[in-house]
Write a structure and sequence with these properties.
The chain contains 5 helices and 4 strands. It has about 160 residues and is an alpha+beta fold. The chain is globular and about 60 Å long.
Length: about 160
């Protein structure tokens, strides 16, 4: 097992596009459905795997383009350290003062490694200077505990 790291920053308005953050329903709308419903399903089915928006369910990062993988670590401590470095790099832009606290961040990162060792995924989100959002994720791979059917984006 290993973990892939993902990072997304962007306008909160883009992050709020829920339809593009959820995989399409596995079954298309039934025959006779409204044309706009059929078209919307087609759009989401085509866009979801290509879109760089953070998925609503963390494991679905694995179906996104491999170019979105920011790093891969077999060691959970190294994966947690990457997340800690990214948090530190974005700290000056955090909207909430409490999120800027270095001691709080260090305690968070220390606790995350244990979760990663158990094969879990991690997803953190922070509001940045308005109106931006930061999404950080570490996703277990080969296999993913919650979605073992999803393949490794790097082919391993």
């Amino acid at each position: 097992m290993h973990h892939h790291g993902y990072l997304w920053t962007g306008p909160k308005a883009a992050f709020d596009q829920e339809a593009l953050r959820r995989p399409p329903h596995p079954e298309p709308p039934p025959p006779g459905s409204r044309p706009e419903l059929i078209q919307r399903h087609r759009e989401v089915a085509a866009e979801f795997p290509r879109c760089d928006l953070p998925p609503a369910e963390t494991a679905y990062w694995l179906v996104k383009p491999r170019s979105l993988v920011r790093g891969t670590w077999p060691d959970p401590d190294e994966a947690a350290a990457w997340l800690g470095r990214e948090l530190a790099a974005h700290t000056p832009r955090f909207a909430a003062r409490a999120d800027r606290d270095a001691g709080r961040q260090a305690a968070l990162v220390a606790s995350l490694a244990g979760h990663l060792r158990s094969g879990g995924d991690l997803a953190l989100g922070y509001y940045l200077e308005r109106p931006s959002f930061l999404s950080l994720a570490l996703v277990a791979c080969s296999p993913n505990r919650s979605r073992p059917d999803l393949r490794c984006p790097l082919g391993s």
